[in-house]
Predict the structure.
Amino acid sequence: MLFRRHVITGAALGVWLSGVLSPSGTPGLSHPAAARTSRHPPHRKPARPDRRPLVLIDPGHGGKDPGCIGASGTFEKHIALAAARALRRHLQAGGRYRVLLTRDSDVFIPLQGRVEIARRAGAALFISLHANASTDRSAHGTCVYRFAWRASDARAASMAKWENSAERFEDPGLRGASRQVLHILATLMRRETQVHAAKLQQALVKNLATHLTMLPVPAPHARFAVLSAPDIPGVLVEMGFLTNKRDEAALRSPAHRDRLARSIRLGVDRYFAVAARPVRWRS
Ligand SMILES: [Zn+2]
């Protein structure tokens, strides 16, 4: 009965979802040590909560999932992490945001795990960083995706299919559940989240277009699993084509990644300037 090991019951999925859908990961006080601590609170004043918006940066792929492989053998997962660290530096430099990475090392995190990290942390924004690939070695340029049920065009649909295929590296028993979670989360997707994601997408495209070659459709949309959080506006930036020698050389350059990160930060600044307020989860 090997098959039964991987069957996830509705009840088990419900328990898992209740964790996934919980708006905060606040620990309880059920542990005896925690209870003792609560009876004797320290006299120090509690630190004031940091109310700056939290930007979640998601370097694509990692660990056993290399992502696409470049013309000269560059792994997408390494480029994504280096770009994420550069973006973190830029976002932290202004002091206006809190910043968290879904991964800060070469580790594999399932797509729904990334969504869960963002939701548990209470992220105001989610920015996933990737690099593109094509059988056409001359294809080059940048674009910024957002989530939508229907893809804007065939290229966007195949891109979402490729990025969602990171699921093939997951434990076989979780794959079905992962698809169910995507479906449930995406069904809960709020209109205001989509509106804010579109504003974020436009703000990023506007800044990136000032010094990068953008694809003919610079702001497409498709059903990306990693952008399925119903309450967090998110975008997925395809920073360039690793299968194109010039794009690959640029993405390997720290100076280029720094310019790219600066542009994204300016886009984030612009988003917060134009969006009335970030979307928050209210159940
Ligand atoms: Zn990717």
Summary: Residues 60-61, 67, 76, 130, 163 surround zinc ion (CB under 6 Å).
